[in-house]
Specification:
With 125 residues, this protein is an alpha/beta fold. 43% of the residues lie in helices and 15% in strands. The protein contains six helices and five strands.
């Protein structure tokens, strides 16, 4: 019995260490990451929200779109991806979805585009 419990915890730990983790980042880190070639920036807000302004270079896939996974699967799973929304709820959920889809390096912009705007950073309209 002890061996079974020990084996269970050993396997559990190795699985946990192998999982992709969504890393929360701030605006400063986003600006730094966007200078790297191949980084993908994903805006998961609604089309109406995007019309009010978005971060330059962003790809738009609405979190609520029934084809979210199909559209996201067109992105490169081996390149870093940064997800943002209005304040952070949908981007956190999107990050979790991207993990299950096999993306390997995922960042979530803390505070979303709201904090981006509060800090006076540029938007494309």
């Amino acid at each position: 019995m002890r061996l079974a419990i020990l084996l269970f915890f050993s396997l559990g730990c190795s699985i946990a260490f192998g999982q992709t983790v969504v890393e929360k980042i701030d605006n400063e880190k986003l600006v730094e990451l966007m200078k790297s070639p191949g980084v993908q920036l994903l805006d998961v807000r609604t089309p109406g929200e995007v019309q009010k302004g978005y971060i330059e270079g962003a790809i738009h896939i609405d979190y609520f779109d029934q084809n979210f996974e199909k559209l996201a699967n067109k992105l490169d799973k081996n390149k870093p991806i940064i997800v943002y929304c209005a304040v952070g709820g949908r981007s956190a959920k999107s990050g979790e979805r991207l993990v299950t889809m096999g993306f390997t390096k995922i960042y979530d912009l803390a505070g979303g585009i709201t904090k981006w705007k509060q800090e006076g950073l540029p938007l494309i309209k």
